[in-house]
Write the structure tokens for this entry.
Amino acid sequence: MSDETGGRGEVTYESEGFIGTITLRRSDKRNALDFALWLSLSEALRKAAQDSEVRVILLKGAGDSFCSGLDLSPTNEVIRLLSKKSSADQKMRLFDIIKRVQSIYTELEVLRVPTIAVIQGHCLGAGLELVCSCDMRFCSSDALFGLPEPRFGIITDIGGLQRLPKIVGRGKAREMAFRGHSIGADEAKRIGLVNEVFDTQEMLYIQASKIGKEIAANAPLAVQGAKEVLLHSEDVSALRSLEYNAARSAMILPSEDLQESFKSYSEKRDPEFKGN
């Protein structure tokens, strides 16, 4: 499928078996994000959320870069607004756009199935904030991460300041948010930003797909329930999270998948989970 639509780009959703793939397709701009592409991402996320068969989502960027961040060209509505003389109407429109994009990133974060960011090349600004909304992040050795917003007089505002500290810790998140510098793949692995680094982009795609298939082979009710509990635990006390965890576990037990796991174990074969 072509990743160019008159220079505007699009975000596509495709599925094969239990694996869904969302792809940023604007490689001529290193998948730079503008408001139109964000809306296309929201549509792809809607399709993914409605796909009852999918058990894992891979998030990719076409070409040699995952995402270079905000599109700074004048064709981007956000840049046009920033170029205008300050006014109340301008500020309200910017506020509305920021809130809408924040909601799109939250749509990704709360998808019922695990999400894996597959990162090559540039992963900057709004692109880094995007992968922070995923459950796991894998990259190739050429990956470059950063929040360059302070170098442009912009506050990081699409969830990076909220999600990044939970991933890499308060100190590292603050350093990245204040300095505006970039870090390579090895440093990203060292601070916990990515789960694993692979030598080449080809190996990255192979291994990310393999990990996705491993997750998809597990019992969907258990995996999705675990994700729901993990998300819930981020905003409540440990005691309340434990109570919710107990309730969520009781909701899915017993299940047909549980019986299948017992049966397959006794029959010395791999289980075939149905999500029931």
In short: The radius of gyration is 20 Å.
